[in-house]
Amino acid sequence: MKSSSKIAIIIVSVIAVLTAVCGGICFFSLHQNPTSNSEQATDIVNIPGNTPPYHFDYSWANHPYVAHAMGGILGDTYTNSYEAFLLNYQLGHRIFEVDFVLTTDGETVAEHDGPAWHEHTTGTEHLEFNHDNFITHLAYDKYHRLDATDVIELMQAYPDIYIVTDSKFADAERVNAQFTRFVELAKAIDPSILDRIIIQIYRPEMLDLVMAIHPWKSIIYTLYANPDWTPENVLAFSEQTGVKFITMWHYLVTPEIVSLWDTADIKIAAHTVNDLAAANRLRDLGTDVIYTDFLIP
After folding, report:
1. How, if at all, do strands 95-102 and 108-110 pair?
2. Which pTM value belongs to this model?
3. Closest by alpha carbon to 155, among 188, 122, 112, 126?
4. Cβ(154)–Cβ(85) under 8 Å?
5. Residues 8-33, buried b or exposed e (16+ Cβ, 10 A)?
6. Is 207:234 a contact under the CB 8 Å cutoff?
7. Residue 232: exposure state from Cβ atoms within 10 A (0-12, 13-18, ≥19)
8. CA gyration radius, the chain
9. What's the pLDDT at 115?
10. Helix (H) or strand (E) segment spanning residue 178
11. Which of 8, 12, 232, 246 has a 20 to 30 A CA-CA distance from 187?
């Protein structure tokens, strides 16, 4: 990258941080009365008239990059923060992957490491990982944290963005808790927001769980949490269900896999890539989308 480009990125980063600190705080509801997540989906049932193979919409995949964990900012990654969103939106990103975990009091927050959150949050070593403790402490002493409500409100304020969920869990209880919450929040603000939430599943059986909660318009099968995947069983799953978007570690993409999956019109995303030359090699290989911290559209 040319030095002038690096300087431009640094300048935009500083502007984004100053914008959030000076005026962005008004975006937040101040989290004084977080709502309860006590209502969760219970029985998993088939949705009448909406059985596989589904016809998912992957038109959003014409964007070249997914901003990983809201994208990097000032050299920091995995912040999932408001400032990271502002910066990377200004840089041109429109697809944002966000990590979601459940706090000890059952709230869904944008965080990658869960109980290890205190490792990059000053003064929290002995604090419980609950909603209020998490949301009131800045990540890296710089960045405002987000919960599910904030993310949905961002989607309302920025109607051209999509959110890719990295929800970590594939068990029924936590899947129900997290995705029921997304549905409740979006329906209370604007139900059409749900059409811009792209769900990542980690095992084949998770598809039925999420589709019983809501008829999502787009599903990604992400392979990092499934040691049992093979190119052949992924192909079979895609043909049976209509899931036509697969995300995998960048070093696992091979010409053989690309050729095999191309027979079913499967789109491939690689994560996480921050080297432009490597991203271009992956594209030449047949990769459609790149998850990145720092590459710019």
Report:
1. antiparallel
2. 0.85
3. 188
4. yes
5. ebeebbeebbeebeeebeeebeebee
6. no
7. exposed
8. 19
9. 86
10. helix 172-189
11. 246
Query: How far does the chain reach from its first CA to its final CA, in angstroms?
Result: 14
- Determine the pLDDT at residue 50: 60
pLDDT digits (tens, 9 = 90+) for 230-240: 999 999 999 99
Tell me, what's the pLDDT at 52? 85
Mark the ranges of the chain whose per-residue pLDDT is less than 50.
1-49
Q: Which two tokens stand for residue 250?
A: 């960048």
- The pairing of beta strand 245-249 with beta strand 197-201: unpaired
> Letter for the amino acid at 13?
S
pLDDT on residue 51: 73
Contacts of 220 (CB under 8 A, 6+ apart): 164, 198, 199, 200, 201, 243, 245, 246, 247, 269
pLDDT for 31 equals 44
Q: Which residues contact 22 (CB under 8 A, 6 or more apart)?
A: none
Instruction: Compute the distance between CA of residue 159 and CA of residue 162 in angstroms, rounded to an integer.
Output: 8
b/e code 242-276 from CB counts within 10 Å (16+ = b): ebbbbbbebeebeeebbeebeeeebbbbbbbbeee
Q: Which tokens hold the place of 119?
A: 């490792």
Q: What is the pLDDT of residues 35-76, one digit of tens each?
A: 333 333 323 233 434 678 999 999 999 999 999 999 999 999
Run of H or E residues at 100 = strand 95-102
For residue 38, CA distances in Å to 106, 111, 176, 181, 212 come to 8, 21, 11, 9, 18
Phi then psi dihedrals of residue 201, to 5 deg: -110, 155
**Coil, helix or strand at residue 197:** strand
Structure confidence by residue, pLDDT tens digits, 15-37? 444 444 444 444 444 343 333 33
